[in-house]
Amino acid sequence: MKKYNLDENLIAKFDNEKAIVTNSVDVFYGNHQSIFNVNLDFPRFSITALIGSSGSGKSTFLRCLNRMNDSIANVDGNIMYRDVDINSKKVNVYEVRKQIGMVFQRPNPFAKTIRDNVTFALKKHGIKDKEELNERVESSLKEAALWDEVKDNLDKSALSLSGGQAQRLCIARTITMKPDILLLDEPASALDPISTAKIEETLKNLKSKYTIIIVTHNMQQASRVSDYTAFFHSGHVLEFDKTAKIFTTPKIQATEDYISGDFG
Ligand SMILES: Nc1ncnc2c1ncn2[C@@H]1O[C@H](COP(=O)(O)OP(=O)(O)OP(=O)(O)O)[C@@H](O)[C@H]1O
C-alpha cells in the first residue's frame, strides 16, 4: 500500500453560505479511531460528494451529521448547524433528523402503500388534515421525480415498486418533512444505470431547495452531480475543493491516484 502524507491536507474554504460546519470531528468505535480531526464547511444549496476507498470513513462521517452514530460510536468535536452544536447530547436528536434527513444505500420503503410511506412521518408529527396530506404527497413525489409514474397507484404497496422507484420514494419520504439538508449514503449503488441517471437528475433538481451531501464510490457520479468533493483517506480528509478542480487539477498525489484508479 502506498504511503501518503496525512499532514498534507488541503481543505479549501469558500465564501458561500454554509449549511453545516464540522470542527475537529473525531470518531471512535471503542478504542479504534475511524475519523481524525475533520474540519469541513458544506456550502448551502449545493451537492458535496464524499469520496475515498472502502473503509476510509465516508459513511461514518456522514452519519455524524444527523447523529446516526449515537448508539454505535463516540463522536467528538462540534457540528454546527444554525449556530447550534448538534453533536451536543443536549440537542434533541429527532429535531436534528427533521432538519437533516438521510437516504440509505438500499431502498427501504415501509411495507405500506406509496401514499402511507410519504405521510407516515407527517402523521407522526400531528398533521392530520387530508387536504394538506394529499398536497404534501403530490409535492414530495413531484420533487423526487416519481409522481408521473405512481400518481394513479398511490394506494398500491410500495413493495411493488422497482428498486429505482423505491429509492425515489425514499427520497420523497425524506423531503416531505421539509428538511434543510439531505444526506445520501451511496443511494444508487444498488441500481441499474437508467435508475441511477434518474436519481442523479433528481438530486440536481433538488439542490435549489436543499443542501445535499452524498457518499459515492462512483467517480463518474461524483463528477457528474457534485459541486464540491471531499476526498477521505484512512479517516482523514486529505483534500476538499470544487469538484471541477478535484477532478482536473487535484493538489495532492493521493487524490490524483484515487480518481485515476491508481490507488492502494
Ligand atoms: N459499526 C462499526 N463498528 C466498528 N467499526 C466500524 C463500524 N462501522 C465502521 N467501522 C470501521 O470504521 C472505519 C470506516 O468505515 P466506514 O464504513 O465509515 O468507511 P467507508 O469509507 O464508508 O467504507 P465503504 O465505502 O466500504 O462503505 C473502518 O475501519 C470500519 O471497519
Detailed description of the structure:
With 264 residues, this protein is α/β, with parallel strands linked by helices. The chain has a domain at 10-111 and 181-259: 3-Layer(aba) Sandwich (Rossmann fold), CATH 3.40.50. Helices cover 34% and strands 26% of the residues. The chain is built from 10 helices and 11 strands. The protein has helices spanning 58-64, 93-99, 114-124, 130-143, 147-150, 163-175, 193-206, 219-225, 243-248, 253-259, and strands at 10-11, 18-29, 32-43, 47-51, 74-81, 84-85, 100-103, 181-185, 211-215, 228-233, 236-242. The strands form 2 sheets. It has a 7-stranded mixed beta sheet with strand order 1-11-10-4-9-8-7, sandwiched between helices. Strands 3-2-5-6 form a 4-stranded antiparallel beta sheet, with helices on one face. Helix 3 (114-124) runs parallel beside helix 6 (163-175) and helix 4 (130-143) packs across helix 6. The longest helix is centred in the middle third of the chain and has 14 residues, at 130-143. The N and C termini lie close together (5 Å). 43% of the residues are buried. The mean pLDDT is 94. Adenosine-5'-triphosphate is lined by residues 29, 34, 52, 54-60, 72, 217.
